Structures are given as C-alpha cells and as structure tokens.
Structure to design on (296 residues):
C-alpha cells in the first residue's frame, strides 16, 4: 500500500499561484482550494487505496527561527484572497478524514520527515507531495518526493536516482550542500567564494560537515581550506537549519489513513458547498459511486 504524505500549505500555495481566480456564486474565493483538491484526487486515483496524512505548520516560532532570526525573512505577505481560503481550509481537511499533523516549534517539513522515517520500511513506500525543494533530501529508499512544479511547470516525482542525477549528490547530503551554497527561499546565506560545483565536489567525498572538518587537511587548494575554516560555525549552523528533523513528537493516532465511505461522503458535501462541480465525477469515481446519470 502506498502512503501519501502531503505538505498541505505548500500544495495550497502552489495551487493559488498556478490557477486563475475562481469564486463561488456568493463571491467566496476558491482557486487554491480547488487546485489542492484536484491534486489530491489525481494522486488518489493514481495510487488506489493509498493511505493519506497531511502535515501543516502551526502558529508560533520554530526552532529554526529561534536559532536564526532571519530564517525565511522577507517572504511576501499572504494575499487576502488566499488568506480567506486558508481560513476555510481546516473544514475541508476535517472532511478528508485523514490525520492532520503539526507540532509547535517545528515546520510541516519536519513532520513529513518524521512520518517518512516511520514508514520507510513498509511495503509500498511513501510519496511526499510538496513544492518545497527542502524535502528532496528525503527521497531515498522507498520514499519518493512528488515535487509540484511552479506555474506552467510539470510536476516531477523524485526518487533517490533522480535526485542524485540532478544534484550530483545523494539526497541525504543535500543539507550539507545547502550549508555551503545557501538557500534564497529560506534566506540562508551561502559561503562567499564557494559555488555549487565546489560544494558538490566536497560532499561527493565527505558525508557531512562533521566529516569535512574532521578531515579538513585533505581539502585542496589551501585557499579553500582557509575559507572553510573561517566560516566553520556558519556552515554547521546552516547544515542544522537545512536538515529536516525526524524526531518530531506526534500523537499516537498519526498513522496515515485510507479514506472510507464516510470520508468520501463528507468530501462530496464540501465540494458541493464550494461549487466544485467538475470535481464531483472524479470524487464519485474514487468512491465507487455510479455516474449521476445512472443514479436518477
């Protein structure tokens, strides 16, 4: 059985910017929710009887922000039309019937990493659904990452082989790579004078920053050794910020769940309330209901 682990807000945000504005007859904006639901239906259709769990960010400061005040600073404010949909989102998620998981002090990415670690050894593996590249570090073994493309870009499902081909490194080494080159989306500064090619070369030989600095004398040229030594503390901090946690405390009832007939019924009522008429036949097909024309 495949397990779908969804980065909820990432998927909703991607849908908001990918689709034209939509609203109900009463004027309630719905494009982000429509895109999110359309994506879920597609994934559930492509992975019959898949179990589902959804990760969310919780209010309050994360451990990363406590460590580095500028973490993710400078991101634009949420548009008002999207904010209205985010307020409507909990009701929709409740209708899905799957566990919705978040943890104070952690990000949704850490929740997904913890869930992925728990299910990595299960038959069928897991697919993480997100538009956040940070999660590519989890694409190894039986875990894949379905990366939602930006507007106009096709989604790509990454496994260990594809991540390694794209970045030239094993997925588990990506946080160490980011520690050197930085990450604009998270506002993590890179090390001046070290580019992507050098970072790849270093972490093709060293597993992480700890191993790199334990064998720093073997790094050439001397100028590079000096740069690394000067920025040692920043590199370790960046690596800790970029590496996802797999020890998030989650409730006992956090196991992914296969939707039931009751869940399909609640989802249908929500779709009707949101006026997602084009999604109803897809939902009914998943629920095993006959087409509307045959129910008359």
């Amino acid at each position: 059985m495949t397990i779908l682990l969804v980065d909820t807000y990432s998927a909703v945000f991607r849908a908001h910017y990918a689709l034209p504005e939509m609203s109900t007859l009463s004027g309630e904006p719905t494009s982000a929710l429509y895109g999110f639901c359309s994506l879920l239906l597609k994934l559930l259709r492509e992975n019959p009887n898949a179990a589902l769990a959804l990760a969310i960010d919780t209010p309050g400061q994360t451990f990363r922000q406590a460590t580095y005040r500028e973490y993710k600073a400078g991101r634009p404010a949420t548009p008002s039309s999207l904010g209205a949909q985010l307020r409507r989102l909990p009701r929709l998620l409740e209708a899905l019937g799957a566990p919705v998981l978040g943890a104070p002090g952690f990000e949704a990415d850490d929740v997904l990493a913890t869930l992925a670690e728990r299910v990595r050894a299960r038959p069928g593996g897991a697919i993480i659904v997100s538009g956040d590249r940070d999660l590519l570090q989890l694409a190894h073994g039986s875990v894949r990452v379905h990366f939602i493309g930006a507007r106009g870009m096709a989604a790509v499902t990454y496994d260990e082989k594809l991540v390694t081909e794209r970045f030239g490194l094993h997925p588990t080494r990506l946080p160490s790579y980011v520690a050197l080159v930085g990450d604009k989306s998270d506002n993590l500064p890179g090390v001046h004078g070290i580019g992507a090619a050098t970072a790849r070369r270093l972490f093709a030989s060293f597993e992480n920053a700890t191993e790199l600095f334990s064998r720093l004398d073997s790094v050439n040229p001397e100028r590079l050794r000096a740069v690394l030594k000067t920025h040692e503390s920043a590199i370790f901090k960046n690596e800790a910020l970029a590496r996802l946690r797999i020890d998030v405390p989650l409730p006992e009832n956090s196991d992914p769940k296969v939707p039931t007939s009751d869940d399909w019924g609640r989802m249908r009522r929500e779709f009707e309330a949101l006026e997602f008429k084009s999604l109803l036949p897809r939902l009914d097909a998943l629920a095993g209901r006959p087409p509307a024309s045959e129910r008359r």
Remarks:
- Residues 171-242 form a domain with the DNA polymerase; domain 1 fold (CATH 1.10.150.20).
